[in-house]
Amino acid sequence: MKKIFVLATLLISTLGCAQKEETSFKKEALNNVMVTVENKSITFAEILKKYEGKTVVIDIWASWCSDCIKSMPKVKDLQKKYPDATYLFISMDKTYDAWIKGIEKHEINGEHYLTSDGMKGIFGKSVNLDWIPRYMVVDKSGKIVLYKVIEADDEKLIQTLDSLK
């Protein structure tokens, strides 16, 4: 009986601590002002609106992040395997110049935006950003179908993109 109680308690506490998978962006994220490569302001909501009706792979990264840079070949493989998806790169770089140099240096193809306040800012907090790189997938209806993976070759990411083909 004691074992059953311990197992039940463990199960309840594990399920209670599981991170909720978000299916939509919080208002704070949508209202967050970012910067385009042309150095113009744009809200995240306006960015998402541009890609309505498309599968969007979001890669949150920074040019100073060694794990992000190591993952870029895997991201490029994803782009080859799933060419119909839009690849949206959101940078956590501290300056516009560092961000632009990073895009050029690493030859990153896709849509690029810079957050205005870094990892610990409004956007980062609103998506529970605790590590970069961070990958998310938004389906054609605008729903978040994959909230968090940190590897570009994560099986959950691959399965999600396969299911959206």
Structure description:
The relative contact order is 0.19. The protein is an alpha/beta fold. A hairpin with a 4-residue loop joins strand 1 (33-36) and strand 2. The chain has a single domain, classed as Glutaredoxin. The protein is built from seven helices and seven strands. Mean pLDDT is 89; it is low at 3-19. Keywords: Cytochrome c-type biogenesis, Disulfide bond, Redox-active center, Signal.
CATH class: Alpha Beta
Low-pLDDT stretches:
3-19
Largest sheet: 7 strands, mixed
What is the count of structural domains? 1
CATH homology-level superfamily: Glutaredoxin
Q: Taking strands numbered 1, 2, ... along the chain, how are they ordered across the largest sheet?
A: 2-1-5-4-3-6-7
Mean pLDDT: 89
CATH architecture designation: 3-Layer(aba) Sandwich
Instruction: Calculate Rg over CA atoms.
Output: 17 Å
Q: Determine the number of helices (DSSP H or I, runs of at least 4 residues).
A: 7
* Succession of helices and strands: HHEEHEHEHEHEEH
Q: Tell me the total number of β-strands.
A: 7
Overall 3D shape: globular
| Alpha-carbon distance between the two ends | 49 Å
The level of helicity is 40-55%
Question: What class, by secondary structure content?
Answer: alpha/beta
